[in-house]
Write a structure and sequence with these properties.
This protein is mainly α. It has 8 helices and 2 strands. Helix 5 packs across helix 8.
Amino acid sequence: MDAATRDRLAKVMAMTTSSHDAEALAAVRRANGILAKHQLRWPDVLANAKASAQGKAQSGAGQHPNWSQTKRGQEENPSWTMSAGEEAFAQGVCDRGLGPSGQLVLSARDVAFLRGMEQRLDDYAHSVMVSRKQWNWLMDIDVKLQGRGL
């Protein structure tokens, strides 16, 4: 696994600590997807991490800082590119929220957010950036719609 993929996996795993269960679950699934893409299992990753940590300890080299210590991890609102599953979820929320029934139960601000999200999904298919704040808002809208049976 290359360094960029390893960093992405670490960032995704940091999202598993979210207080929003759906976001944490999505992060676990995304991490499992990264491993599957590279034909790895968790024991492989953990064994490599242990060997790497032992090698660094012996050489005296400092360890890579964890997610919360990185600049992006300290940002109030880190962003990432949505996976295909996340895009499908977002599109589903947009479709339900922007339908006639959805617009009746959502605030004008929620509807405007969904319109903007839908436009981004159309314009930037497969490379839509979303912030943690936007993702949480999308999740909250989904809960509102589900509460109304939509």
